[in-house]
Structures are given as structure tokens and as C-alpha cells.
# Entry
Amino acid sequence: MLVVAAEYLTYTEAVGLYRRLHDEAGVVSLVKNYGPATLPFGDGLYFRLLIEEEDVAAAREIVAAFELQRTERAAVRCPRCGSYEAWPEPEACQPWYKRLYYAGTTLYRCQRCGEEFSG
# Structure
């Protein structure tokens, strides 16, 4: 009987977890489309990873580490100098045209070189 190991994955995440389970624990898994249908073909928007019930114990630690890494926010790095000293620019300090241009994203400013970029 197959059980769900992880769901709502992007294709890249699903393939990465599939390979990690196979390489590290020898667990064979199945990747299937999942979620709301997309047009024009009707395939699911996301992917789900299924494993055999007897492999759950072997996969538990790998899946937990994957989920933790997936939910952690990656550190923002400046594209110009590579510094991790990039902080979100407060919206109150931004002119209206920048708020309009970067709508839906966060504007960052590097404290080392002064580069502005969205993330």
C-alpha cells in the first residue's frame, strides 16, 4: 500500500526528494501530479511523492529534514558583492514609483555596497 511522504511539491522539489530517498535510504518512491488542474492539459499544478508503507521508517528522517529545509527562509544575498548584509528597505522610505515597480516583492538594500534589488 502506498502512503504519502510529501505533497504540494514543485517538480524540482519532487525529483530532488525522490533522488535523495533513493540514494540515501534505498527507498523507491513514486512521483505523481497533484492539486488543481492546469490548462490546457489538465495535469495537476503540484506533485506528490508516494512510498511503500514498510519504507516509512527509513524515509521519515530524510523527509523531515527536507520539509525543514523547504520551510526555512533562505538568507538573502547581494547579487553585486555577494554579501549577506542585505536588509529589507522600509516601504515608508521608498518613493511611490519604486513601490509601484516592486509591487508584490520585497526591495532589499545591501549594507556593504548599497545595491538595491528585489527578492
User: Anything to note?
Assistant: The CA atoms of residues 29 and 51 lie 5 Å apart. The beta strands are 2-9, 29-37, 44-52, 86-88, 107-110, 116-118. The chain is about 30% helix and 30% strand.
